[in-house]
Every structure is written in structure tokens, then in C-alpha cells.
């Protein structure tokens, strides 16, 4: 007797992305392989970001730095990230036992038992945001020049929030421009990118909405921090529907840190005062997903105007 089973059509965005070979499953939610087409879209978008910055969105030519997806654990601890976002952090552990410990580890593996007891923390943690590695580096250089400083960063980042939502990956890339200087300098930088970022994204033919936002601070004190951040207008996000229309995804963020990182790291401006910082961040995977969501899985069939912007 032969039983013929009809294939189930992919219904969710994640299933469709995997079915079309855009993302590759690994068996872990939020950890995916990327196809060549996906990577090409990200490369084209990064070129667009660079061109937009060079055309006037940035106040000068930034210093370009590319960081690995891990950072100094002690810098991470000093940054205060664990006070605000312990639920997102990822640490790196390694085996540090002796021969006996190795034997015990192998025995546990063979018996399908938890073998991680022999693991201990190392001197590195997974990078939570591209700019976190930058601040102690800049502080070590000494006082800023009168014009402040500007950096162009990119890094793989990690946040522990496994999800079936493809836009909420655990490992993802973040492109950032980070501005150091006096309050007026960094606020003008952020205001410029709020305008130029919106113009840039409209050229890509995706629905966007800029809104006041807050970071996902943890716990009771986190509620107060969220309210303060919103009340002072410190964070704006550019939202694009990806997984759902009801809950659009933040794809770009525009952040004014005031003197938080300046105080934490002893960042000093040219007049000997505590420096202020601001950044604009681009979620590269999220922007690529937004483009596939709204223009389809065949990049050759995307609207000519969009292709002209990206593949010029």
C-alpha cells in the first residue's frame, strides 16, 4: 500500500526564507546560515550606508574599525551591561581541568550527562553591541580634539533571546557610526542621521516609521530607566514590518548616551570636560530581511528603483 503525503507549504516568514534557501537551519532558534544572495544584499546595503555617510550624514570622515564578536570581559563588566541587560548577555567558557577532569568530561559525554561543570569563564565575552569595545580604546588615547571624534564600526553581536522570529537572531551584525564630543556636536550628529537615515530607507521601498523607543532594561529598576530614556528622548528607532504588521521591527536606532560612557570610561573632550557620545546603529540582517519580506525572495525581480539604489 502506497501512501502519498502532500508537502506542507511554508507559511511563516522563517519557513519561507529557509524554503527558498535564503537562510539555512542549524537546529538552534536564532542561529542561521546565510546564503550568497542574503550576504550580497547586506554588502550592497553597507555600501549604501557608507555612501550616505560620505554624502553629508556624517560630520567628517570616520575612522573605520571592525571588531570580532568577542570583547574583553573586564571592559564588559565595567560597562555596566550586566546591571541593565543580564538576560541578553553571553559569556565564553572553556575547559580548564586536568587529565582527571578530562576523563570525567568524556565519561559524562558518553553517558549523555551535563559535561559543562569542567568549564570556567575566560577573559572574553560575546560582544553585545558593536560600540561597547570602542569606548575604552578611545579613552586610552587621551583627550579628544576640538572637533571630537567619529568612528565607523561593524561587528557580529550576540543577544540571548532565541525566537522563531527571523528578525530576532541571537547572532547578528551591527554597523554603527559613533560620535564623541560636546553635547551640541553629538546631538547634531544624531539629528542629521535621523533625517538622512529616513531618506536613505525610503529609497529602498519598504514601509518605515520612526518612533521614540527605549532599551530592554531588566527588572524593577529597568522600568524607571525605560521611562527616563523615553522622557528625555534619548532613543529613536526606525521600525519596519517584518514578522508582523502589528509589531514592526527596529532596523535602525538613533541613540544619545549623554555622558554615560564618558563618565564610565573617563572620556575627556578638548576642554577637559566629560565627553558625550551618540550613535546610529544599523541592524544588517534585519534590513536584509525587510527587503526580502517586502520585495520577494528573488532579488533579480525586485523593483528597478530599489535595485538601482543597491546595485549601482
TrEMBL record:
Domain of life: Bacteria
Keyword Lipoprotein: no
Domain Aminoacyl-tRNA synthetase class II (G/ P/ S/T), first and last residues per copy: 125-294
Keyword terms of this UniProt record: Ligase
GO molecular function list: ligase activity
Hydrolase found in the keyword field: no
InterPro entries from the UniProt entry: aa-tRNA-synt_IIb, aa-tRNA-synth_II/BPL/LPL
EC nos: 6.2.1.n2
EC class: ligase
Entry's transmembrane regions: none
NCBIfam families according to UniProt: PRK07080.1
UniProt-recorded name of the protein: Amino acid--[acyl-carrier-protein] ligase
Lineage, opening ranks: Bacteria, Pseudomonadati, Pseudomonadota, Alphaproteobacteria, Hyphomicrobiales
Amino acid at each position: 500500500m502506497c501512501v502519498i503525503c502532500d508537502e506542507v507549504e511554508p507559511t511563516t516568514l522563517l519557513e519561507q526564507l529557509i524554503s527558498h534557501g535564503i537562510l539555512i537551519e542549524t537546529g538552534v532558534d536564532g542561529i542561521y546560515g546565510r546564503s550568497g544572495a542574503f550576504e550580497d544584499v547586506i554588502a550592497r546595503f553597507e555600501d549604501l550606508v557608507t555612501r550616505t555617510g560620505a554624502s553629508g550624514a556624517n560630520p567628517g570622515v570616520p575612522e573605520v574599525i571592525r571588531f570580532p564578536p568577542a570583547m574583553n570581559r573586564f571592559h564588559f563588566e565595567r560597562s555596566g551591561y550586566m546591571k541593565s541587560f543580564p538576560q541578553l548577555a553571553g559569556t565564553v567558557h572553556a575547559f580548564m581541568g586536568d587529565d582527571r577532569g578530562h576523563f570525567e568530561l568524556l565519561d559524562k559525554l558518553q553517558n549523555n550527562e551535563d559535561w559543562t561543570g569542567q568549564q570556567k569563564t575566560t577573559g572574553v565575552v560575546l560582544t553585545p553591541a558593536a560600540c561597547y569595545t570602542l569606548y575604552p580604546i578611545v579613552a586610552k588615547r587621551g583627550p579628544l580634539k576640538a572637533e571630537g571624534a567619529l568612528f565607523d564600526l561593524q561587528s557580529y553581536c550576540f543577544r540571548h533571546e532565541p525566537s522563531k522570529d527571523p528578525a530576532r537572531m541571537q547572532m547578528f551584525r551591527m554597523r554603527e557610526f559613533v560620535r564623541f564630543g560636546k553635547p551640541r556636536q553629538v546631538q547634531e550628529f544624531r539629528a542629521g542621521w535621523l533625517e538622512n537615515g529616513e531618506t536613505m530607507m525610503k529609497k529602498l521601498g519598504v514601509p518605515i516609521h520612526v518612533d521614540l523607543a527605549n532599551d530592554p532594561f531588566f527588572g524593577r529598576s529597568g522600568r524607571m530607566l525605560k521611562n527616563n530614556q523615553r522622557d528625555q528622548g534619548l532613543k529613536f528607532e526606525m521600525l519596519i514590518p517584518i514578522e508582523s504588521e502589528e509589531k514592526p521591527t527596529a532596523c535602525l536606532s538613533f541613540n544619545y548616551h549623554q555622558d554615560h560612557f564618558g563618565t564610565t570610561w573617563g572620556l575627556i573632550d578638548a576642554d577637559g570636560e566629560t565627553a558625550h557620545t551618540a550613535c546610529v546603529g544599523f541592524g544588517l540582517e534585519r534590513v536584509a530581511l525587510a527587503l526580502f519580506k517586502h520585495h520577494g525572495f528573488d532579488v533579480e525581480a525586485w523593483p528597478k528603483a530599489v535595485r538601482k539604489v543597491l546595485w549601482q
